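Lab channel / #folding
Pinned by the channel admin:
"Please post every new chain as: sequence first, then the structure tokens as a reply. Keep commentary short and put observations after the output so the thread stays searchable."

First post following the new format, from NK:
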Amino acid sequence: MGKASQVSYECQACGWVGLKWVGRCSQCGGWDTVEPVSRRLSPLALAAVPASAEDIGQVSAAAGAVWPTGMSELDRVLGGGLVPGSVALIGGEPGVGKSTLLLQVAARAASGGHKVLYVTGEETPRQVKLRAERIGALAPGLKLAASNELEQVIGLANSEAPALLVLDSIQTLSSQVVEGTPGGVAHVRAVTAELVRQAKARDMACLLVGHVTKDGSVAGPRTIEHLVDVVCLFEGEASGSLRWLRATKNRFGSSEEVGCFEMTAQGVRSVADPSGLFVDAGGSPVTGTGLGVIMQGRRPVVVEVQALVAPSAMANPRRTTSGVDQARLTMILAVLGRRCGLSLAGQDVFASTVGGARATEPAFDLALALACASARFDLMLPPDTVFLGEVSLGGQVRPVSGLDRRLEEAARMGLTKAIVPSRGGGKLGASGLEVHRVTELSSALRVIQAANQVAVA
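Reply from TO:
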């Protein structure tokens, strides 16, 4: 006869499990984080519970109809809106605007006739109401409660029967029947599993706020990301107002969609056309500026890069970047010097994107390289031209992914010409742009020289 129960030991920081106690976790290195966990072993006979199965064609999908949240960019990421019975986890750094976003979603859902329950474990109801007044999220039908206990949340769901449950945050919730430290791995995993079960049983949509670790991933065991239906990360610079919502998992849509938002004094606002945020439309054109297109998920975004080249008074000239990869800039400057004869060894080089955009993908290489060349020789890059291509160490311009979609976005923004790699892209004419194909970076420089009707000495 086997034992009815077995004691194992689990790290409350990372979820490592062992059969004996240790003072230091062998996986994460934490001290005094390993605690005993009693696990009941169910007899195998319990697995033979009678069940039934349906033909897939006979399964009713009426209850799973999607209803929009009222925020177009959030609906874009979620795959059209909220699905009854689904659980979505929204992670992000402190202060990025997760609670504000979900409070607005809750208010709009309540205004649309849905019963909504907003449970906060980090604030008092008064604090939440003050924020709701500030952003205009006071809506009839929106119920508010403060609790840190799972049993109370389930009791509220029983009494209120909401169509949408918003929980802020999953790390603050604990259960009386789970051993270990509240907020630890065991609690987060058990609480998430029970909330998912409740959401499926009640056809209740559930939005969970999750904290993130230093590396940007959702805090807690990876198990919670497998349990929920949707995992999104809400990102943004603390000094800026722009926010991005990226789906890393989505059972109801594409995980490549990215939503763009702007944080304002009135709350979070959807930005349907982010390309205009990253292009300096005011003033007369200046040298050292070029246009490229980056991909945010499946969405192309036109971004302007600005470069400044000035004589250096230092033994080691500076290479300063903002929004572009500094290592990538250093490589491009080396290619310009070795393959194109454009030496910048004694020059300080500064490169920055407009609007705080991050353009680190290789497809932005050509725009960055030509902006540096434009600043060095005081040549004007055509303001109606977009530059797309990866620059190799040999000086070749390599093809990039999604070239057709990038050109369509450039045409939508009013650009008329494009310099692209000689290979890649099958429907370039469909964009309506005048396309120049180049094989090498030096060829792209000659196109710019011809446009300026000068020659680089």
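NK: The first helix runs from residue 72 to 78.
TO: also worth noting, The two ends are 90 Å apart (CA to CA).
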